[in-house]
Amino acid sequence: MVPAGGREVDLERTFPRNLAALEAVFAFTAEFLAASGAPAGAAFDIDLIVEELFTDFVKYNRSAHDIGVRLRRAGGAVEMTLTDRDVERFDVTGVPEVDPERYVAERRVGGLGLHLVRKLADRVEYRYEDRTSRIVVVKRLEA
Amino acid sequence: MFDIRFEADRLVLRGRLDASQAARADELLQRVETSVAADLAGLDYISSAGIGVLVKAQMRLQDAGHALRLENAQPRVRAVFHYSGLEGLFGMA
């Protein structure tokens, strides 16, 4: 059941593999949020989850393909799927939790993004098939 | 849209500090050489890339006996620091 004001929406787009594409990615999330009637308060968390996963693909994967972003609203949740083709397997659900004290002490530059995704998401799944990585994140919308 | 600048004796950050803007923030933060407060009232969004450049600046300043203090963060921005376990590092707790 879709909450009052909400609509079933399923949008998918691909973006160039660079950080400058983030502006277009955020325009896409804004388009999705408007179309789906999701609460305005959901925008921050959805942008953050999509950015963290997108930038990890940009930074760590070597591929000539664009990166796919699919946003789907079903019922009271948003499902975000990021797809990267022709890449090595990297299961984000197996990455150890970040210890903030160690993060600072070791002056680490990675790991915090996935930590935030896990904190904000209600479910994170990783699928790898035919050299294609798919990360599926589900975030429940607040009433 | 992201902006970072000195206004009087404070750093002021506005807009969205995402991964595409982190290098700009880093460039200015590297010029900070003493303790300073940063006003985040106008900062609407921050991701781990933005947190990373602030942590980098804080560690450099603390090594020199100084500190970067973050003030007036909006609730969503503050939540990102909270989830990161880094509120205390910036005097936000």
Please explain how this structure is put together.
The complex is a heterodimer of chains A (143) and B (93). Chain A is of the alpha+beta class and 143 residues long. Chain A contains 4 helices and 5 strands. A 5-stranded antiparallel beta sheet of chain A has the order 1-2-3-5-4, covered by helices on one side. In chain A, helix 1 packs antiparallel against helix 2 (42-60). Chain A starts with 8 loop residues before the first strand and ends with a strand. The model of chain A has no long low-confidence stretch (mean pLDDT 91). By secondary structure, chain B is of the alpha/beta class. Chain B has helices at residues 22-29, 48-63, 75-84; strands at 2-7, 10-17, 36-46, 68-71. In chain B, helix 1 (22-29) runs parallel beside helix 2 (48-63). The radius of gyration of chain B is 12 Å and the shape is globular. The chains are: A alpha+beta (143), B alpha/beta (93).
Q: Low-confidence runs of chain B (pLDDT<50, min 5 residues)? A: none
Helix content of chain A: 25-40%
Strand order of the largest sheet of chain B: 1-2-3-4
**Proportion of β residues of chain B?**
25-35%
Q: Helical stretch count of chain B?
A: 3
Biggest interface reads: A-B, 24 and 20 residues
* Structural class by SSE content of chain B: alpha/beta
Query: How far is it from the N-terminal to the C-terminal residue of chain B, by CA?
Result: 28 Å
From the alpha carbons, calculate the radius of gyration of chain A and give it in angstroms.
Answer: 15 Å
Sheet with most strands of chain A = 5 strands, antiparallel
Query: How would you characterize the largest beta sheet of chain B?
Result: 4 strands, mixed
> Could you state the oligomeric state of the chains shown?
heterodimer
Mean pLDDT of chain B: 95
Helix-strand sequence of chain A: EHHEEHHEE
